[in-house]
Amino acid sequence: MEWQIIIAATIKIIVFVFLTTLPLVAMSVWAERRVSAAIQDRVGPNRVGPFGLLQAVADGIKFLLKEDFTPNHVRKGYFWLAPALVMVPALMTCAVLPFGSKLFGEKMVIADLDVGPLFVFAVASLSVYGIVLAGWASNSKYPFLGGVRSTSQMISYEISLGLSIVPLLMIYGELNLGSIVQYQAENGWALLPLWGEGLSAKGWILAVPVFVSFIIFMTSMFAETNRLPFDLPECETELVAGYHTEYSSMKFALFFLGEYAAMIIGSGLAVTLFLGGWSLPFGWLTPESTEAAVPWWHGLIHIGTFFAKVIGLILFFIVIRWTLPRFRYDQLMRLGWVFFFEIALFNVVLTALLLWWLS
Amino acid sequence: MTFLFYIFAALALIGGIGVVVNRNPVSAAFAMIVSFLGLAALFIQLDAYLVGILQILVYAGAIMVLFVFIIMLLDVEEEEKRRFPIIGITSSFGVAIAFTLLVSVILKRSEIGAKPLPKLAEVSGPGSSDVHRIGEMLFSQYWFPIQIVGVLLLVATVGVIVLSKKELR
Fold first, then answer.
1. pLDDT tens digits for A239-280?
2. Which of A32, A115, A137, B121 is the most exposed place for a label (fewest CB within 10 A)?
3. Which of A115, A147, A176 is facing B53, going by the closest CB pair?
4. What does the pLDDT read at residue B158?
C-alpha cells in the first residue's frame, strides 16, 4: 500500500510540477514579452516557432550556454545557494494546490493536507531567504540594498497577506484546500456567489468582506512576488538590478524563473481560495463530495478549468505590470502598514460580526 | 518510515551544532533555520501538522528573517575575530553535561512513554480537523490562559518600544 502511495505521489509531482508548472513558467515569460509588446505598440518575439512560442526554448538554451561568471568578492557558498533557495520554495508550494477534482480515482492534489493555506504561507515565507542571501553574498552595495528592501517588504506584506484570507477561512470553516473548492463548487465561488446557497442574502452580504480580502490578497501578492508596481528590490533606476546584479547565466535565470513560479503559485492560491479552483460555474459537472467518484473526462475538464483560470490571472499580473508605474519605497511601506494591515484586521472583525448576525 | 526520522533528527542536530560552531553570525543564523526545519519535519512525522507548520511559519519564516535582517544591517564582524575563551567553553560543556545527566535521571524515573498518549480527537471536543479541534479547545477550555499570554506579549512589545526609545525616559 505504502509503495503505491509513494509511486502515485511521484507521478503527480512529475506531471504537475515538472511537466506543467515549469513549462507554464517558461510560457508566462513569453506571454509577458508579447503582452508588453502589444501594450507598447511593438511586435515582440515572433521569430522562433509559430507566434514565437518556441522563444522560451531559445532563451533557455541561451541561459545555459552563457558564461557563468562568479565575481571574486562574493561569499562563494551562499552565492551558489541563493538562486536555488528562490526557486525551490516556489515549486514546493505546488504540493497542496488542488489541480483538479479526481482522475482515475486519484485526487489531483499531491499532498491532501488539512492545513493547506498555512503550508503555502510557511513555505512561501522561506523564499525570502534566497533574496536576502543573494544580496548579502554578493558583497557589494546595490545587491545588499536590494536584499534589505526585499526583506522588509516581504515581512510587511506577509502580515496583510495572511490576515486577508482569515475572513475566507472563517466563512468556509475549513483549512483543506480540496474541501474549500468543493464548497465553492456547490455554493458559488467566494467572489461570484451566483448559484447554490450563494444566491441567498447571506451569500451576497458575505461577498463584501470577501471582495475586500481579494483586493488586499492580490495587492500583497504583487509585493510578495516582487512584481511591478512593487519591484523595489530590483528597481533599475536606483539599484542597477538589485539583489541579482552580480549574477549571470543560469543563476540569474533561476531568480527570473523563481519570480514567475511564485506568481503562478500565487495565482493558483488566489484561484483556489476566491475563484472556485477547478470548479465550473453554476455547479456544472460538480462531484457530489470530495470522496465521490468522478468520470475521467470530468476530471480532465476540471484540470483544464483550473489552468484556464490560473492563466487568466497570470495575464492580469502581466497587464498590471505594464500599466502602472513603480511606487516609491516609503509609499509602499505606508500602504502595507497603515492601510492594508488595518483594513485586513477590520475585515476579520467585520466578517466575524456578519457571520454571528447571519446565523 | 524510521529512516525519515533519522534523516530529519540528524538535520536538526547538525543545524544545532552549526549554530554553536560557526563564527560568522549569518552562517550561525542559517544553521539555526536548518535546525528549525528539521524540528518541523519531526513534528509532522508525529502527525502534528499544525505545530510543524507553525514552527516553519513563525520561527523559520518570521523570527529568523528578522534575525538575519538585523545581523546583516549591523554587519557584526567582531565575533569572527574573537578567540575562543577557554573558561567559557569549559563551563558551557560542564553545563551541557550536567543538563544531560539531569534529563536522563528524570526520564528514567518518570512514567513518560510508559503508556501511549491519547489521540487529540479523544481528549478534545468534536471537530473536522486537528486545527479545528485545537482552536475549539484554546478558545473554550483554555480561554483564560490564552488571554494572559496575549497580555504578556503586549506588555513585552510595549516594553521593547519604551526601552528602545531613549528620549522617552
1. 777 777 778 778 888 888 888 888 888 898 898 888 888 888
2. B121
3. A115
4. 92
Domain contains B54: yes
- Residues B12, B74 within the same domain: yes
From CA A222, how far away is CA A216, in angstroms rounded? 10
Residues of chain B contacting residue A121, judged by C-beta atoms under 8 Å apart: 57, 61
- Say if the Cβ atoms of A173 and B128 lie within 8 Å: yes
Q: Which of B56, B57, B129 is the closest to A176 by Cβ?
A: B129
**pLDDT tens digit string along A94-104?**
888 888 777 77
- Whole-number pLDDT of residue B79: 61
A125 contacts B62? CB cut-off 8 A: yes
Distance from CA of A224 to the nearest CA of B (A): 13
Q: Where are the alpha helices (DSSP H) in A101-248?
A: 116-137, 141-164, 166-172, 177-187, 201-224, 236-239
Residue-number span of the structural domain to which B162 is assigned: 120-169
Nearest to B61 among A78, A126, A133 (CB): A126
Which residues from chain B sit within 8 angstroms of residue A155, using beta carbons?
Answer: 62, 65-66, 69
Helices A296-321 & A249-274 angle (0-180, nearest 10): 120
Domain assignment present for residue B149? The answer is yes
The count of C-alpha atoms lying within 13 angstroms of the C-alpha of A303, restricted to the half-sphere facing its C-beta, is 18
Output the pLDDT for position A276: 81
CATH code of residue B46:
1.20.120.1200
ipTM above 0.85, yes or no: no
Q: Where are the alpha helices (DSSP H) in A138-200?
A: 141-164, 166-172, 177-187
Residues of A within 8 A of B66 (CB-CB) are 155
Tally of domains within chain B = 2
**DSSP state string for A267-319:** HHHHHHHHS-TTPPGGGTT--SSSSS---HHHHHHHHHHHHHHHHHHHHHHHH
Pairwise CB contact (< 8 Å): B33 & A129: yes
Predicted confidence (pLDDT) at residue B40 exceeds the cutoff of 80: yes
* pLDDT beyond 60 at A58: yes
**Residue finishing a domain among B82, B111, B143:** B82
What single letter denotes the amino acid at residue A66? Answer: K
Instruction: Determine the Cα–Cα distance for residues A217 and A163; give it in Å rounded to an integer.
Output: 9
Asked whether residue B16 is domain-assigned, the answer is yes
Asked if B54's CB is within 8 angstroms of A118's CB, the reply is: yes
C-alpha–C-alpha distance, residues A32 and A40, integer Å: 12
Yes or no, beta carbons of B72 and A132 under 8 Å apart: yes
Q: Are residues B67 and B11 in the same domain?
A: yes
pLDDT of the residue at A251: 82
> Which of B44, B50, B72, B120 best probes binding to A when mutated, by most A CB atoms within 10 angstroms?
B72
Residue B156 in this model has a pLDDT that exceeds 90: yes
